[in-house]
UniProtKB/TrEMBL annotation:
Residues 38-216 form the JmjC domain. Coiled coil: none annotated. Gene3D superfamilies: Cupin (2.60.120.650). It holds the Pfam family Cupin_8. InterPro entries: Cupin_8, JmjC_dom. This is JmjC domain-containing protein.
Length: 231
């Protein structure tokens, strides 16, 4: 996917078929192709491999989709390695794994968003900065449920939200737990490989209740006021 690295906001995302080797080359040095990128040199290029369709039938176009798996089969091995890398910690916890994602990128900044699952970030290569906000900043970030929960808040709103944020740098071998519905953003100045293990408590029948019980008063008030269900 490609998006504007300058905008911590809901925005248009561009996708295009690209050979893995070409993605690696372009993500490391965009100068020769900047004119053809949607945001020029400010374009963040980001590769996401996920087996989410294993638990979410609506997540079409992932590696678990038989329509694309054959074409991307060399990358399936990378995703399998991500699962293996996260297994020692995840399997020791009382949280069943929902799915695993593997993220590749160089010099990207991913906007503030929330995940509707418990999330453990495993840094496999390179370094990445993660900034986490408490869930009560929902009135400032104003997540856009139609655009990956990216912010719709203005500059003043986001500056106010950042007063409550905590940032940490992850290096190879580090892991970070990001609680359900806690806004966070990530950025990296170098080539980075990250595995995310998404976890859930209980079975599918109980998950919605668990999510609702986890919502803070501010989160519930925001959903009521906006007529949306963010998670």
């Amino acid at each position: 996917m490609a998006y504007d690295s300058r905008a911590d906001a809901a925005q248009r995302i561009f996708t295009a078929p690209l050979a893995f080797g070409d993605f690696l080359a372009v993500s490391r040095d965009k100068r020769d192709v900047a004119a053809s990128l949607p945001y020029g040199l400010d374009t963040s290029l980001y590769l996401l491999l996920t087996d989410r369709r294993r638990v979410d039938g609506a997540a079409a176009g992932t590696l678990a989709d038989p329509n694309v798996l054959d074409d991307l089969s060399p990358l399936q091995g990378l995703l399998d390695k991500a699962v293996a890398a996260t297994a020692p910690l995840v399997d020791a916890a009382p949280l069943p794994r929902a799915w695993t994602s593997l993220r590749y990128g160089a010099g990207y900044a991913y906007p503030t968003h929330v995940d509707c699952y418990e999330n453990v970030i495993f840094q496999l290569a390179g370094r990445k900065n993660v900034t986490i906000f408490p869930p009560d900043v929902v009135w400032d970030t104003k997540p856009d449920v139609e655009n990956k929960h990216w912010p719709r808040g203005g500059d003043d709103d986001l500056r106010r939200a950042r007063r409550s944020a905590v940032s940490v740098e992850l290096g190879p071998g580090d892991a970070l737990y990001v609680p359900l519905m806690w806004p966070h953003n990530v950025d990296s100045d170098e080539f980075s490989v990250t595995a995310n293990a998404y976890l859930r408590l209980g079975d599918d029948a109980d998950w919605g209740d668990y999510v609702d019980r986890s919502k803070t008063n501010a989160w519930l008030a925001y959903e009521i006021a906006t007529g949306t269900r963010l998670c």
